[in-house]
Sequence to fold (152 residues):
Amino acid sequence: MTGFLFELSFWLAAPVWLLMIFAPAWGPTARIAASPMTAVPVLLVYLALAIPVFPELWTAVNSPDLDTFRELTALADGAGAIWAQVIAWDLLIGQWMYREARRLGIPALLMGPLLVLTILLSPFGLLVFLGVRAVRSRRSARDALTAGSTRH
Fold:
C-alpha cells in the first residue's frame, strides 16, 4: 500500500503541472493554478502515510536532528510521507511561479522548462525563477518610468 500511495502522490499533482506547462493560456488553467485546493488530495495521501508513523514523525520534527530524521525516512511510510509533503509543497510553489509569470508577462516558452525544473529539483527551479522574476520586475519598473516620462 505504501508504494501505491508514494506513486499516487505524484499522479495527483501531475495534471496541474501539465496544465501549467502545456496549456498556460487556457482559461481553466489560471483558475486551477490560483487554488491552493490542488494540494489537498496530495496532503490526504500524506496523512495516510504519516499517521502510522506519527510518533516517529513527531520526534523528528519536535526535536530535529539528522539521526532522528534518518530513522524516520528509513521507514517506508516515513519516506512516503516526506515525499508526499514535498510533492504538495512543490506544487504550491509551481502554482505561485505560474501566477507570478503570468502577472509579469514572462513567456510560457521560458516558464515551461522552469516548471519542469521545479518538478524535478524545486530549489533550483525556484532560485532560477526568482532571478528571472527580479530581472523582469526591474525591467517592468524601468519601462513604466520611461513610459511615464515620455508623456510629459
User: Anything to note?
Assistant: The CA atoms of residues 37 and 92 lie 9 Å apart. The mean pLDDT is 94. The two ends are 68 Å apart (CA to CA). DSSP finds eight helices and no strands in the chain.
